[in-house]
Amino acid sequence: MKPKVAFFDFTSCEGCQLDVLNLTAAELLDLLGAVEIVNFREAISNRADDYAIAFIEGSISRESEIPRLQKIREQAKVLVALGACASIGGVNCLKNHLSMDDALRTVYGDAAKYYDTIPARPINAVVPVDFYVRGCPAQPEELIKVVKALLLGKKPDIPGFPVCTECKMAGNICVFELGKTCLGPVTRAGCNAICVTGGRHCWGCRGLVDEPNVDSEKEVLRKYGLTPEQAVEKFRIYNTYAEAKK
Ligand code: SF4
Ligand code: SF4
Ligand code: SF4
User: Fold this and answer.
1) According to the model, what pLDDT value does residue 231 have?
2) How confident is the model at residue 169 (pLDDT cuts 50, 70, 90)?
3) How many angstroms separate the alpha carbon of residue 246 from the centre of ligand 2?
4) What is the three-class DSSP state of 187?
5) Rounded-to-integer distance, Cα 20 and Cα 200, Å
6) Which ligand neighbours the alpha carbon of 203 most closely?
C-alpha cells in the first residue's frame, strides 16, 4: 500500500506548492507511483484525515494556526517543513520588526481591527519537525529526494556545508570581488548557488548552516571593505527569526 501524503498551507504565498506542480510530468508520475496524495489544495479537491506524511508550507502568524498545526502533527507519522517560511520563518518574519498593531495597520489600514496577528515563526517553533525541504521556493527536486529517503527508511542527504562550496564548483566569480555582499558563507547549500550563477547574490533563503562561521563572514566583509550592517540587512529578509533567537 502506498503511504498517504498530505500538503497543508499556513501563512505563505503558496509558491512552494506551486513549484511542486512544476515538476516534469515524468517526475510527477514517479512521485504519484510511489505515494498517494490525499490533500493538496492547489491540485485536487478531495480531502482526507488519514495521512502518514504531512508537508507543511508557510509559517505560523496567527493564534488560530497553532491548534490546526498541532492536530496535523498528532496525525502525521512524519512531518516535513516545506520551504523557507515553514523551515526558518522566512519573509513573514519581517513584520516581527514592528509592533503587531503597527503591522496590522500597515497591511489592513482601517480594517485592522477585523484581523489578528502574532509574531511570525517557523513550524519547529510550535511542533517538532522531522525533515526540511528548504528554499524560497522549496526545491521540488529536494522534495523528491526527501520522499525517496522516507520510502527507503533513510535520512535524506541534505548538505550541511555552505553555499560557497557549490558556488565555487559552479565556477562563479565571487560577488565580493564585485563589491557586493553575499550570505553564501553562512547559508546551507543544496541550491547549486543558483542566485549567484544567475547574476545575483545569496540572500540566505535555505537558512543557516548548522554551525555558521559568523566570524568568517565578518572577516570576509572586512577584507572587502564592507560593514556587517550591509550583510545584516540581507540576512533579515529570510532569517529574522534566527537573528532574534541569538
Ligand atoms: S518559502 Fe517562498 S515561495 Fe514558499 S511559501 Fe514562503 S514566500 Fe512563498
Ligand atoms: S560569498 Fe557568495 S558569491 Fe562568493 S563564493 Fe560564496 S556564495 Fe559565491
Ligand atoms: S543562492 Fe542563497 S538565496 Fe539563492 S536559492 Fe541558494 S540559498 Fe537561496
Assistant:
1) 75
2) very high
3) 24
4) strand
5) 24
6) 3
